[in-house]
Design brief:
This protein is α+β, with helices and mostly antiparallel strands. It is built from 5 helices and 8 strands; from the N terminus they run E-H-E-H-E-H-H-E-E-E-E-H-E. The longest helix is centred in the C-terminal third of the chain and has 16 residues.
Length: 163
Amino acid sequence: MDLDRVTRYQRFETRAEYRSALVTALECAVREVRILESDGVFAGFEQPAFATVLDELLRRRGDAQVDILVRDAGFLERSCPRVNALMTTHGARLRVLRPDPPVPSFEKSLVLVDDSVVLRRPNANLPVAYWDCDEQAISATRRLFEEIVSQSTTAYSVTPTGL
């Protein structure tokens, strides 16, 4: 990850600031992005900038991986055609997963980029978010994602079946 663009610690107060920070973090990604969101509405998964930076990452690196974990994939499925198109284009390198069983910590949102930076929103009911490069925060977030991903199922697929 290009840490020159990411300060060691920063606080974001609004939805617009959070969305901008998310796009910046994704622009800096080199190989792996993991996102834990309730449904993607607050994060702006429907925004063109979100899909654009994911596509750029996946095209730039043939081994890049993006995992989006959501409790409710309905918003993504219905309102995010760009992300759905990317799922078709990039196949298994862009996965939308549903934790099974549901994760109790869905009160918060987390983004882990290249095991280098964590963007977190501790309370889904508040717009306040933070990012930092603290090794402890990164390590704890990495372990949480490993546990959640290992118990997740595909939320939905955009590829035709039975062909």
